[in-house]
UniProtKB/TrEMBL annotation:
Superkingdom of this protein's organism: Eukaryota
Record-annotated Retrotransposon Copia-like N-terminal domain positions: 27-72
Ranges of compositional bias, category Polar residues: 231-251
InterPro entries cross-referenced by the UniProt entry: Copia-like_N (IPR029472)
Name assigned to this protein: Retrotransposon Copia-like protein
PANTHER family named among the record's database cross-references: CCHC-TYPE DOMAIN-CONTAINING PROTEIN (PTHR37610), GAG-POLYPEPTIDE OF LTR COPIA-TYPE-RELATED (PTHR37610:SF78)
Chain spans, region Disordered: 229-268
Length: 302
């Protein structure tokens, strides 16, 4: 029998000793068939959402270094270099699994995850005036339209976050940045109130006439409580009306129904027998008196 390759044994030992926090470590579940995000890249219209979700997923897997260039291939250790190639292939398949079929055909022959990531960014990370205009128009045209307040607020919040990601709001702590963020929050408050159904007009007026405008979250909380109050009130009224209707129907049915009971023949017969027995006893008593005291006309006398 031939001797086992000592290099293969050494490589296997070295890979098994990789720390779980090392980018080269692959968990058994990190297969090439895995889809790590639920959003498929279609093009410019959803690149911002796709890239953000993909970045979060890769960071959770500790593999974002393969697309931003921070995790480099080893040139000294062929074992680690081989493991890097394996990890790169896994990350590359994750990227390809998360794009549309048209984009997949254009990237399937790539060999580096970094090249695919940068190519997609250069091609689709383009924010021009038309994209900003379309999204801002959607935000201002959205309305509750009979849906729940929570559903309406969630739809608005999603578009607000997309819009903020496009414009890249300042994150510094200077006064100008604070004023700009305050103005942005005011615009969002107005957009939220404008799209509410007309039944919330009193609540909207109350919020707009305050000396200090509330935040969007506070306004959402107030409107949600009003919605809950309306739903509970309408439910109670419906139950009361239903109970009253059933009660009236029951009363009317009893009032209009014919008397099904009627006289009880046995009770009537018993009453007759009792009456006859009393009469008989009374007559017997009178006859006894007549026998003892003589004829009645003599007892009563003229």
């Amino acid at each position: 029998m031939g001797d086992a390759d000592p290099n293969a044994s050494t490589s296997q030992t070295l890979i098994s000793k990789l720390d779980i926090g090392d980018p080269l470590y692959l968990h058994p579940s990190d297969s090439s068939a895995l889809t790590i995000v639920s959003v498929k890249l279609k093009g410019t219209e959803n690149y911002s959402v796709w890239s953000t979700s993909m970045k979060l997923a890769l960071e959770a897997k500790n593999k974002f270094g393969f697309v931003n260039g921070k995790c480099e291939r080893s040139t000294e250790d062929h074992v680690l270099a081989s493991q890097w190639n394996r990890c790169n292939s896994v990350v590359l398949t994750w990227l390809l699994n998360s794009v549309s079929e048209d984009l997949f055909l254009g990237q399937v022959f790539s060999t580096l995850a970094l090249e695919v990531w940068e190519d997609l960014k250069e091609t689709y990370d383009k924010i021009d005036g038309s994209v900003v205009y379309d999204l801002f128009k959607k935000i201002n045209c959205i309305s509750q339209n009979g849906s729940t307040v929570a559903d309406y607020y969630n739809r608005l919040t999603t578009m607000w976050k997309q819009f903020d990601a496009m414009l890249k709001l300042p994150t510094c702590s200077c006064k100008a940045a604070k004023d700009y963020n305050d103005f942005s929050m005011l615009i969002k408050l107005m957009q939220f109130l404008m799209g509410l159904d007309d039944v919330y007009q009193p609540v909207r007026t109350n919020l707009l006439t305050r000396e200090v405008f509330p935040s969007v979250k506070v306004a959402f909380s107030v409107v949600s409580r009003e919605e809950s109050h309306r739903m509970s009130s309408s439910g109670s009224k419906g139950q009361n009306v239903s109970f009253a209707s059933k009660s009236n129907q029951s009363f009317e049915s009893r009032r209009k129904a014919p008397n099904q009971r009627g006289p009880n023949p046995s009770l009537k017969c018993t009453a007759k027998r009792t009456h006859i027995r009393h009469v008989f006893e009374h007559v017997s008593c009178l006859l006894s008196l007549n026998i003892i005291a003589g004829p009645l006309y003599e007892v009563n006398g003229p």
